[in-house]
Structures are given as structure tokens and as C-alpha cells.
Amino acid sequence: MIVIFYNTNSVLCFNFQLSICIVIVALPSLLIGNSRNPSQVQDDLATRIRYKRKWHKVPDYTQARYKLNEFGTDRGSQYSVLDKLMYEVPGKDNAGAFIKDDAFGLASYDISKSGNVLLNTAKYHRWYKLAQAGAMGLQVNHRGYHDENLWVALNTQKDIMPLTINRWVNGKQVWETRRVSYAIPIEIVYTTPLANWNPYDIEFHGKNNTPVTLNHRNGGKDKAHAYNGNSIYAYYRVPKELYKQVPHVENNSKGVLDKNGNLRLVLGAGPQTFSYPFEDFGKVRLRYPIFPVHFEGTTVGMELEALKDSVLKMSTYAYLYENQPMASGSGTTPTNVDVNFHVRDSYR
Questions:
Q1: Contact at 8 Å (CB) between 295 and 301?
Q2: What is the pLDDT of residues 147-190, one digit of tens each?
């Protein structure tokens, strides 16, 4: 599995620049202890209204946005499967580094471990705990404060803009300097063994695409126009017979010559949002965008999400309404409309 995220440090963030990192982690680390797919689709209502899409059809589109939720229901939590994944990613000091954060004389501990186990702050994390409660009575703290999508890693790189503070310890002035980088998860991509599967023994030419397309070869389904092997620019090697024979599969297949000059009809082996459909269970989604939108975590954003849930799921959140919108009654006049009564005129 590949986790793709934007990785910013203090200098790049100050200059409004972003660098992109790709990190490979083991697939079981996402699914251990979870019988369900932890990816939960998010309801971008404006997009659904624009394209007139029903809710149950949203996962069928590439624009669907997800959030990792191993619990299968909406609930408050601290340490999650995404924290576990991000903790496998090293910061700017790279793999093997260990940094102990003991700012203000208080060491940071790993909240996923029982007891006081030091947290390696050289890896990306967003939660930490202290041995003693702070002024607010809290031991568990969040790096991003109100931003649940921000991960932080400490480093010792001189090119990173530092933050230095001083404090008094036993009557002596002590200076402490920290350098940090930030990470925001963007997408999860599942890889498959198909990328390395080569049942037809098709020759791979690496970055050299010349022999593959020489003499106007374009992947046609005859020997004269079929690709002569593979390159990183034309990576077709999965037999089309692996998938359900539907027009989509047939139209996207390419002709490729194997090492013996035999014509093979194959499909691309690179990453896709959806796999081609299999005979027994159809297509499989392989890419899950999990990037946050800009208002998530803000007070307005949370109010908007709560309002959206209460409107779209009225039966679930009926107890929240001050006036029941679906209440039955014989009257047809809205309750907030003035009603005028006219009595018989009196005479002197």
C-alpha cells in the first residue's frame, strides 16, 4: 500500500511551497484487527447536487472522498489506524532517527502504549501524553490543537527554521530550540501483485521506449502495430482473460509482442482508481482520497457538517429538532404565521 501525502517544513510553508512524498507501508498494518474496510465515504453535498448523484452511487465515482474510520460508526476517538500508519513515516532526519521531546522538562510519551513509553518524535505523530496533568487537567495532548489533519515530526536539520524559547530552571536560564516538519495525508493507494506479474514473459526496456514503439507501433492488435515489449511509458502485461469480458476490457486492451514475437492481448498493470471488473465480484477500488477540505475542524465547518447530518438523517437526529419538521397534525397553517380574528362589530 502507498500512502501519498504533502509534506511541508517550516521554510517551505513560509514560502507557500509544498513538496510531495510517497511512503510505502505494509498492507496488513491498515487492516489488522479490522474485519471491515476502514475507508468511509464522505458526503460532499455540493458535488452531488451539481451532478445529480444519489448517495449510494457516490463510491462508484472517482471524485469520491473518504476518511479512515476503523470503528464503522461516527464516534470520538484519539489514536486511530491513521495515526499508526503515519507513525511509520520518518521526518526530515529520515529513518533510524530518535528524538526525545522533553520541552519544559516534561517528556512526551506514546499514547498507544500502556505505561510511560517514550515517543519517538522524529516520526510523524499528532498525539502525545505527559507524565503529569497540565493546567487544564489533561495528560493527553494534540499537536495540531483544533486541526485533526496535521501531523508533526521533530528534526535537527539546520535548513529548517527553528523556534527557540527560554525558561528558568532552578534559578538558571535554559534555552530550548525545536525544528519541526508537518505532514497532511492526501491519499491511500492499494498496490496489487499485478505490477510484477509477467505470465507472458514480456521484455521490459525500462525508460527506453524506442524499441517498444519503433516503426509506428502503437499497441494495435496485430503484429505490425503491437508494442514490442514494455517500458515505463507503455506498461501492458496483464492478460485480459483475467477479467470479465466486457466492452470496457476489450476496448482498453493492447497488443504486445512477447520475447518470442507472439502477439498477446494485455491490459495495463499500473495503479488505477478502479480495477477492471472481475468475473465473480466486479471491480475493486484501489485509490482512496482522504485529503481534508479547508473548513474541516473550524467552528463553522463543524456546525455545517452537523446541520447537514441532521437534515439528511432526520430520523436519526429527530431528537435535536426544536420543532419536529415531520410532525403530524390536522392544521395546515404554519405555526409562525400571524392569525387575525374578526368579531362582530358592536353598535351603540
A1: yes
A2: 888 899 999 999 999 989 888 888 888 888 999 999 888 888 88
Who's near 6: CB < 8 A, 6+ residues apart?
A: 18, 19, 20, 21, 183, 184, 186
* Other beta carbons less than 10 A from residue 124's beta carbon: 26
| Residue 1 CB coordination number (10 Å) | 18
- DSSP 3-state assignment of 86? helix
What predicted TM-score, i.e. pTM, was given to this entire model?
A: 0.76
> Whole-angstrom Cα distance, residue 83 to residue 69?
11
Rounded Cα distance, 80 and 69, in Å: 8
Rg of the Cα atoms in the chain = 29
Q: Which of 121, 114, 81 lies closest to 100 in space, CA to CA?
A: 121
CA-to-CA distance for 317 and 336, rounded, in angstroms?
Answer: 23
Please tell me the distance from the alpha carbon of residue 119 to that of residue 79, in angstroms, as a whole number: 13
* Domain residue limits, the chain: 2-189, 193-270
- Report CA torsion sign: 270, 274, 275, 276: negative
Cell matching residue 178: 525545536
Alpha helices of 178-295 — where are they, by DSSP H? Answer: 210-213, 247-252
User: What strands lie across the sheet with 236-239, from one edge to the other?
Assistant: 227-228, 254-257, 263-268, 236-239
Task: Tell me if residue 74 falls in helix, strand or coil.
Answer: coil
Hunting for cell 535548513 — which residue is that?
Answer: 159
Phi (first) and psi of residue 16, to 5 degrees: 60, 40
- As given in the structure block, the three cell numbers for residue 40 are 468511509
The DSSP code for 79 is S
Q: Which amino acid is at 262?
A: N
